[in-house]
Amino acid sequence: MFGRSRSWVGGQGKSKNIHSLDHLKYMYHVLTKNTTVTDHNRNLLVETIRSITEILIWGDQNDSSVFDFFLEKNMFAFFLNILRQKSGRYVCVQLLQTLNILFENISHETSLYYLLSNNHVNSIIVHKFDFSDEEIMAYYISFLKTLSLKLNNHTVHFFYNEHTNDFALYTEAIKFFNHPESMVRIAVRTITLNVYKVDNQHMLHYIRDKTAVPYFSNLVWFIGSHVIELDKCVQTDEEHKNKGKLSDLVAEHLDHLHYLNDILIINCEFLNDVLTDHLLNRLFLPLYVYSLVSQEQCEDRKINPQVSLYLLSQVFLIIHYQPLVNALADVILNGDLSVFSAQPEQNALKSSSSAGVRRFTKPAESLERSLEMSRQRGRKKVQKRPNYKNVGEEEEEEREKWRKGEHTSNK
């Protein structure tokens, strides 16, 4: 009969003020007593995570000791532990939702550093969610988008590890560049633009060297495939019954062009070099311009000349990057067909594996496969991290000291 006046989580009474350090301590005890997710405590854990999120948002504005306690007890690890137990879509959805709300509402950089400091966020990013579930997919990509909005020169080091060449926020996001759901594709574009705008040379060089070629080559193939679908819609719709579909296809293509222009006007030179190379040699010249060549000279023409003219007009209206526009205009105005048979000269685009190729072709590997291969190659070399010894390094140092001591004593 006395049990009702005391909490079942260790005898501590529940704090009346839900926005307080005391209530966070109470929530911590709930987590410690419920480390394994069951059917009986699933709802309790979800509500606990929600409460913790509310307290952290309140603490960001009112009480810094809240984050001190959160970090001291490593409470983020409990979130990750719950996630790794494969406790069902309900818990996954609620966890992603609350994390998204948390990072959206944190305003102080110190609070953000607390949340990012133990690398748990990156562990959540690479967690194998069930992306066939539309709700999980929506909350996950929204979470990545929210995190990308927090990127700057001070926070980028929490996401990009130059010692191990890991940048999960970026590489996991771009895997969904061709997702069937348009809102997911739009979120991916926003994430990539937020990344490219961060003026961190180590990170940008990593993107250029490890991800730019596979991402841009697959992106260009996706855009070109979309153009071919648009062209088929025009050619087969003689009675104009598919106006709605055609309008959607045109709007999507214009979105692609605006996205490409948004990348180029950030004016990251070495990224622009790779993207310009792919756009000219894998899309605009072999697919758009080549389709303007007379019928008897272009057996492999992919799209109708009228469609090509319209698409090229949109390219010149939307894309403002001068080196790309000038190169494309030069080919069109000079009418030099040799560009379709001769190999382009090697130039500053040495980083691009597409140098020397001028045709609209599907990449040999999917983007996800290319990123995985690049990651494995990067891990073949043992990377040393600051303040951490590699396995066996300490023993080697002891042996070296012993040898030096022995050499000295012999003297």
From TrEMBL:
The protein's matches in PANTHER family, at most eight in alphabetical order, are given as:
PROTEIN CLEC16A
Keywords assigned: Autophagy
Q: Where is the composition biased (Basic and acidic residues)?
A: 365-375, 399-411
What species does this protein belong to?
Electrophorus electricus
The identity of this protein, by name, is Uncharacterized protein
Pfam entry (one): CLEC16A_C
Tell me the segments the record calls region Disordered.
Answer: 351-411
Biased composition (Basic residues) is annotated at 376-387
All residue ranges annotated as the FPL domain in the record:
49-196
> What does the sequence similarity comment in the record state about its family?
Belongs to the CLEC16A/gop-1 family.
Cited InterPro entries:
CLEC16A/TT9 (IPR039272), CLEC16A/TT9_C (IPR045820), CLEC16A/TT9_N (IPR019155)
Q: Tell me the first and last residues of the signal peptide.
A: none
* Cellular component, GO annotation: Golgi apparatus; late endosome
**Record domain CLEC16A/TT9 C-terminal: where:** 241-407
GO biological process terms held by the UniProt record: autophagy; endosomal transport; regulation of autophagosome maturation; vacuolar transport
